[in-house]
Amino acid sequence: MRRPTRYAQVWAILLLAALAAAPLPPWAWAAPAPPAPAPSPVRVPQIARAWPVGVRPPVLRGWEPPPTPYGPGHRGADLSAPAGSPVRAVAPGRVSFAGRVAGRGVVSVELAGTDLRTTYEPVSPSVRKGDEVGAGDVVGAVEPTGSHCPVTCVHWGLLRGEIYLDPLLLLPPWLLHRGPSRLLPVLGVPLPA
């Protein structure tokens, strides 16, 4: 292997000096970008007026957001319900899909006045695309097969665009309450005469 000549060494030194003295492009000397702000808590209006199935069904598996858009997770809530049970719209809206996907019955409802849509599966639809539904209206019945639960269940989903959200956020506290209402004693109030 030949050693560089004195001439080549001089040119290499001049080239390095020129590169070192050259002005840097703006992207090279600009301040680093500030870190991205932490995502704000997801805002979901508590507009549900009924559970999709039953009065207060057991939640077999809750919402588990995936770490990436295509990563593992649970994009909804599994609610225990016997086969044939009515499935109800949780809030007023318009049916955007009613049919079969991958062998399972699916109903999707765009919620009125929002950018949200709920999904229910596996369901035998009793509605059609375009139907208006009110809160508590029956949209189908729980199918006996096609569930990923150990017992018959309905997978209830909530989406904003293509982003999955926790459907339980739609429920106001009075629908989430687990036990009977209890009145507290009123102290310090005189009894009526």
Automatic annotation (TrEMBL):
Q: CDD domains of this UniProt entry?
A: M23_peptidase (cd12797)
Q: Does the keyword Signal apply?
A: yes
Q: Which organism is it from?
A: Streptomyces camelliae
Domain M23ase beta-sheet core span(s) in chain numbering: 73-167
Specify the signal sequence span. 1-30
Q: Kindly state which keywords UniProt assigns to this record, in alphabetical order.
A: Signal
**What protein name is recorded for this chain?**
M23 family metallopeptidase
Stretches of the chain forming a coiled coil according to its record = none
